[in-house]
Design brief:
InterPro entries: ABC_Transporter_SBP, ABC_transptr_periplasmic_BD. By secondary structure, the protein is α/β, with parallel strands linked by helices. Helices cover 39% and strands 16% of the residues. It folds into two domains: 111 residues, Rossmann fold (3-Layer(aba) Sandwich), CATH 3.40.50.1980; 140 residues, Nitrogenase molybdenum iron protein domain (Rossmann fold).
Length: 333
């Protein structure tokens, strides 16, 4: 903007009065008609999970197939473009106003399996004529959606081959991508600036913290428990909160945790993720054979947290970081 104005300033003195009048009339006419910026930057192509996704225009009809993108869409003023949703959208993630808005959107399915995965058919999604689907539950394929004219975006951390070690830059990159796709770059940068300040504030409070920690996803009622390595958002969360991730050497996002290894690494702090009901989550870990010998269990340094407050990379990850920090700083007071 400033460059354009300075160029006009240099050019105006050499224009005749007639030319200036003509330009003014043209300017008025342009203001009365459609903006010249409409459609600027399209078509555009972004890379998603190694696939090129091309947008001929900013998407107008969004199908939400996971909860995670909601906070980005809301901060960029895009929730009015969501025409359908699927999955569970816990009120704890959102303001009362935003949660009420979500409830007014038609729900395709809230059927989750025991591990929290959404069950939905591709046909149900396509039937609502979206031009963009966010999230890829079981039964939904990129090729099938593209054939129906629907673009698909998957959170980078959920890609079959996710990027290297996760960081809060992963959050900011997701926001930038949404800003570019929808032409909301300025709002995206404002959001990123706010999140950066919040992460920095937590990191400053964590100076001097020297405890170790692990982030787990227990299966309530029996079954495997899972741990999070350096390709998950759990890793930068722990680092920003001042903790050392005992599974920082695991070069993957999530993996089945072996009880013996968990006990051997003996984290000072445990953060347990869950979806659905919180009841039984902490007890599931505490009741495992040998768990009573872990420092975190002995000293009651355990915090339970809804899954999206950690994964994937969204503003909720920053909120989750703040909750972790507040919980364990409160324990120290």
């Amino acid at each position: 903007m400033s460059v354009t104005l300075s160029r006009r300033t240099r050019t105006v003195p050499s224009l005749s009065l007639l030319t200036m009048a003509s330009l003014l009339l043209s300017s008025c006419a342009a203001e009365e008609g459609p903006s010249a910026a409409d459609g600027e930057g399209y078509p555009m192509t972004v890379e998603n999970c190694g696939e090129e996704v091309t947008f001929e225009a900013a998407p107008e009809r969004i199908a939400l197939l996971e909860t995670a993108p909601v906070t980005i869409l809301d901060e960029l003023g895009l929730m009015n473009r969501v025409v359908a949703r699927a999955g569970d959208f816990p009120a704890e993630y959102y303001s009362p106003e935003l949660h009420s808005q979500i409830q007014e959107i038609e729900s395709l399915s809230d059927d989750l399996d025991a591990s929290g995965h959404l069950m939905i058919s591709q046909e149900e999604v396509v039937a609502h004529s979206p031009d963009l689907a966010l999230g890829q539950p079981d039964g939904v394929e990129r090729d099938g959606l593209e054939t129906a004219g629907v673009n698909l975006l998957i959170q980078e951390l959920y890609c079959p081959e996710p990027a290297a070690e996760a960081s809060f830059e992963t959050v900011y990159a997701e926001i930038e991508t949404y800003g570019e796709i929808f032409g909301e770059q300025e709002a995206a940068q404002e959001l990123i600036g706010d999140l950066e300040d919040r992460v920095e504030a937590v990191a400053e409070q964590a100076e001097g913290e020297d405890r170790t920690a692990a982030v787990l996803y227990p299966t309530v009622g029996g079954g495997s428990s899972y741990a999070y390595g350096n390709r998950s958002m759990a890793h930068p969360q722990l680092e920003a909160a001042g903790f050392e991730n005992v599974f920082a050497d695991a070069d993957e996002r999530v993996f089945e945790a072996q009880l013996e290894e968990l006990v051997d690494r003996d984290p000072d702090v445990l953060i347990l993720l869950y979806q659905g009901e919180e009841a039984g989550v902490e007890e599931t870990i505490a009741s495992l054979p040998g768990a009573e010998s872990m420092t975190a269990v002995q000293e009651d340094q355990v915090h339970t947290q809804l899954f999206n407050f950690t994964e994937p990379a969204t503003p909720l990850s920053v909120k989750g970081l703040e909750q972790i920090s507040e919980h364990f700083r409160a324990e120290e007071r």
